[in-house]
Design a protein that fits this description.
about 300 residues; SMP-30; Neuraminidase; 4-stranded antiparallel β-sheet; 5-stranded antiparallel β-sheet
């Protein structure tokens, strides 16, 4: 197992970690519909309670948190001490949205809840670029016998513009940008595929015609004939490796920019969902062990990537 240091436990399915310059880490707690700040000594402070299902977080150009809120699109169940998402309950769903949250006051504003007249379904992960815009995934909602097809969206932080830039994808989850900002990565949860797109400008992917329809290139597919690896949220490190929370296998999978080399860092939690980088020289990886409700840290073999607008 990797050199894990448990920073905090007793969290409700934590995701969306954001490492701040004071050494604290902000996470969401999905079943509790709240956002929590965790100090280096493990002390927890509630930042905001936006309701719904706060999922992914990123700091915007105004220093505020931007939250991909799935609207409470899933329920939660305890499986022998392991918390896991359950089936959709329409009575608990308040609609997907992107929110702006003041870290100091906890004030919550809705920035987007639809695109081109279609409501956002289940926004999941979010990443900012250097141009004042952000990419986010919409996981969609899974019903008993049907499942949404969704895609990747690009929005301006000031609320002036949102576009659906890539469609269709199957349960797109994690999203990230290459160190030079010229390539976009996304992970499909159940297919176990990392897909990439070249960007010709802010919010503009170069779409390659093909049968898949999404116009991207598969960087890597994980799992073999007898393995099932689900992919969750991701971060890109300073050398361009795509580092993705890997479900079932329980750890972080890192794929080099060519897609040829793969590393795996086990955590012991089959619902390891997210990673971000912080600490001196960004050499510390903060990882959400969501099934067991813990935030952990571990040394990373390469420097992390300084995100746009880091606070």
């Amino acid at each position: 197992m990797s050199e894990l240091n448990i920073i905090a436990d007793g969290l409700g399915f934590p995701e969306g970690p954001v490492a701040l310059s004071d050494g604290s880490v902000v996470v969401v707690e999905l079943p509790h519909a709240r956002i929590t700040r965790i100090a280096p000594d493990g002390t927890k402070t509630v930042v905001a309670e936006p309701g719904g299902g706060p999922n992914g977080l990123a700091v915007g150009p105004d220093g505020k948190l931007y939250c991909a809120n799935n609207g409470g699109s899933m329920t939660w169940a305890d499986h022998g001490g392991l918390m896991a998402p359950g089936p959709h309950d329409p009575s608990r769903y308040s609609g997907g949205r992107i929110e702006r949250i003041d870290l100091d006051t906890g004030e919550v504003e809705v920035v987007y809840d639809s695109c081109d007249g279609r409501p956002l379904r289940s926004p999941n992960d979010i990443v900012f670029d250097d141009h004042g815009g952000f990419w986010f995934t919409d996981l969609g909602i899974t019903f008993e016998r049907t499942q949404d097809r969704t895609g990747l969206f690009y929005g301006k932080a000031d609320g002036s513009s949102i576009t659906e830039a890539v469609f269709p994808l199957d349960c797109p989850n994690g999203i990230g940008l290459s160190p030079d900002g010229k390539r976009l990565y996304a992970a499909e949860t159940f297919t176990g595929r990392l897909i990439s797109w070249e960007l010709s400008g802010p919010g503009t992917p170069v779409l390659i015609p093909g049968l898949a329809g999404h116009g991207g290139t598969v960087l890597r597919g994980l799992g073999g004939q007898r393995e099932m690896h689900g992919l969750d949220s991701l971060a890109v490190d300073g050398e361009g490796w795509v580092c993705v929370g890997t479900l079932m296998a329980g750890g972080i999978t890192a794929v080099d920019p060519t897609g040829e080399t793969v590393e795996f860092y086990p955590t012991g939690d089959p619902l390891t969902t997210n990673i971000c980088f912080g600490g001196p020289d960004l050499r510390t990886a903060f990882v959400t062990l969501s099934g067991t409700g813990r935030l952990a840290s571990m040394p990373w073999p390469r420097p992390g990537l300084a995100l746009a607008h880091s606070r």
